[in-house]
Each structure stands twice: as structure tokens, then as C-alpha cells.
Amino acid sequence: MSTVTVRLNEEEEKIYYKYAQFNNIALSTLMKEALMEKIENEIDLKSVLEYEKRLVNNEVELYTLEETKKLLDL
Fold first, then answer.
1. Phi/psi of residue 50, each to 5°?
2. pLDDT tens for residues 3-14?
3. What pLDDT sits at residue 1?
């Protein structure tokens, strides 16, 4: 496991530490979870933008529930 140093000013340290305490988690856990959430949000946004581009280019096929059931032999 590696160690990463993050420099915080006094105000940031106070805010982040109190938030971590409020949620009963370690500050390192808070930072890891926040970074992972940011990464996931960017991936989600990229997916939405790609979908919207495909939608504009008529590259998306939509199926009703009944059509989906029929396609899956359900």
C-alpha cells in the first residue's frame, strides 16, 4: 500500500475533518470515496454524451417491453 500526501490549508482541513467525523469515517476513506465518485461521474457523463450523439445520428434502437420479451423468447 502506498502513501499519498495531500496538502490542505487550515480551512480545508477543518471542513474535511469535520465532515469525516460527522459521517463516522476516516479522512483517508472520505477522500478515496470522493475521488472514486468523481471518476464514476465523469465516466457516466461520457456515456450519456456518447448516447446523445448516437441518438442525434439515429444510431439508437429502442424497444418496448413486449418487443424485448419477444426478442428474448420470454
1. -65, -40
2. 999 999 999 999
3. 85
